[in-house]
């Protein structure tokens, strides 16, 4: 039973998509450092206040997921509860991270692709909203933002040899799949086309704007790719061709810093503006 909530492309806000590109940038950094490519950014009042990527291989520490890495830098200057803050992360938070986010009182989580093996926001367990965890407030978790890019980022990692593994596996014969399964259908009482109320009103919705929306389907129940596995479903073809398998250049979508300078916001930094709008290319 999948309780995850996926937002249809027609209802995805351009501001959310812009911030998800920033999370994808962090995922690219993770991939370049031989980490499972998951990246995230925490946003408050239209500004990035922390961002991070996976560092589990680098420090041989399984708890250093992107979300927890960012939280460590976030809490000293932004103590809980963080109900006015939105987290953008490329993959649905695992059960561990979903629980941590609930404990710090996060307001909203926006993610790219689901996490069918470890997902804590509905794919496996609804840690984010379960009434059984009534010691901490529930939070909204919405998926499907740049889902295909997030999946392809993970696939590129699982195509490579993990030099940090105890027994690295040879993957020379593996072929990178470019077909993406449709979004899984939701079994909750909330239809996929219905939007729950957001605890972060500064991010208004604009359904009429669709220039940044990627095509996707929400009709068929099918597994998502998950962080931690190389098993990928193959039920439909995506618009990404075999000759163009990587996420496009994002040089033009860097964060605007104070004074008009552009660049990648360091982990823990609080100086940032809204990302420059513009589609992936």
UniProtKB/TrEMBL annotation:
Organism superkingdom: Eukaryota
GO annotation, cellular component aspect: cytoplasm; nucleus; tRNA-specific adenosine-34 deaminase complex
Keywords: Hydrolase, Metal-binding, tRNA processing, Zinc
PROSITE patterns referenced in this protein's UniProt entry, alphabetically: CYT_DCMP_DEAMINASES_1, CYT_DCMP_DEAMINASES_2
Start and end residues of each stretch annotated as Disordered: 180-247
Catalysed conversion reaction: adenosine(34) in tRNA + H2O + H(+) = inosine(34) in tRNA + NH4(+)
GO-annotated biological processes: tRNA wobble adenosine to inosine editing
Top-level EC class: hydrolase
Cofactors that this protein relies on: Zn(2+)
Biased composition (Low complexity): 182-223
One Pfam family from the record: dCMP_cyt_deam_1
A single GO molecular function term of this UniProt record: zinc ion binding
Keyword Ribonucleoprotein: no
Residues forming coiled coils: none
UniProt keyword annotation of tRNA processing present: yes
Family designation: Belongs to the cytidine and deoxycytidylate deaminase family. ADAT2 subfamily.
UniProt-recorded name of the protein: tRNA(adenine(34)) deaminase
């Amino acid at each position: 039973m999948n309780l995850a909530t996926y937002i249809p492309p027609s209802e995805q806000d351009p501001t959310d998509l812009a911030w998800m590109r920033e999370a994808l940038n962090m995922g690219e950094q993770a991939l370049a450092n031989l980490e499972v490519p998951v990246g995230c950014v925490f946003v408050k009042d239209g500004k990035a206040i922390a961002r991070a990527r996976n560092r589990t291989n680098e420090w041989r520490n399984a708890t250093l997921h992107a979300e927890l890495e960012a939280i460590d830098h976030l809490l000293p200057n932004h103590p809980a509860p963080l109900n006015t803050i939105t987290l953008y992360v490329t993959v649905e938070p695992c059960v561990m991270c979903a629980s941590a986010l609930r404990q710090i009182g996060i307001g909203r989580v926006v993610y790219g692709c689901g996490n069918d093996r470890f997902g804590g926001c509905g794919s496996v367990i609804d840690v984010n909203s379960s009434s059984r965890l009534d010691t901490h407030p529930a939070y909204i978790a919405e998926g499907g933002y740049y889902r295909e890019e997030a999946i392809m980022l993970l696939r590129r990692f699982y195509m490579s040899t993990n030099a940090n593994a105890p027994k690295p596996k040879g993957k020379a014969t593996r072929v990178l799949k470019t077909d993406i399964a449709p979004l899984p259908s939701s079994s909750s009482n909330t239809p996929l086309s219905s939007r729950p109320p957001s605890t972060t009103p500064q991010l208004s919705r604009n359904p009429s704007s669709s220039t940044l929306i990627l095509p996707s389907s929400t009709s068929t129940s099918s597994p998502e790719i998950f962080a931690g596995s190389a098993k990928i479903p193959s039920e439909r073809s995506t618009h990404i061709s075999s000759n163009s398998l990587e996420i496009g250049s994002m040089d033009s979508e860097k964060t605007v810093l104070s004074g008009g300078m552009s660049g990648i916001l360091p982990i823990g930094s609080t100086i940032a503006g809204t990302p420059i709008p513009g589609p992936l290319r």
